[in-house]
Give the backbone structure.
Amino acid sequence: MQELEMVGRKPRFSEHEKLSMLLRMQNGENVSRLADELGIHRQRLYAWREQLRTCGNLMPSRPGRPKKRPPEAPPDRQALAAGFALSAEQRRADALAKARRRIVELERKIGQQQVELDFFQEALRHVRGNQQQKDAPGGAASSRSFKK
């Protein structure tokens, strides 16, 4: 890889270097540590991953003369892109699992609200019961009468 001690300039990486970084990322290496090691923001790694998913390559989209390819063969671009790309079935399964988790969360919330509602209904019955006893003939007065 390149020397990262450039002052004032962002490090530039070849497509081969980017692919090997993404391969490390795919193999479970900590993305923040990898980005720190390379002297880039971790969002750059995610942007490269997304570009590989959508475009199938990591070549810059800027116009101009193409760069020479490195002499060593880069990792298999298609296999790496396929590893990052989720199949439609996987996306559906993920969406279904997420929806089920949300349903469980909402059912739990409904249960909590029902407990609270029962509590307040019982408290209201208790308060109304006390008021009816005071209003009944012979019931306790709300305040003492003032007599001289």
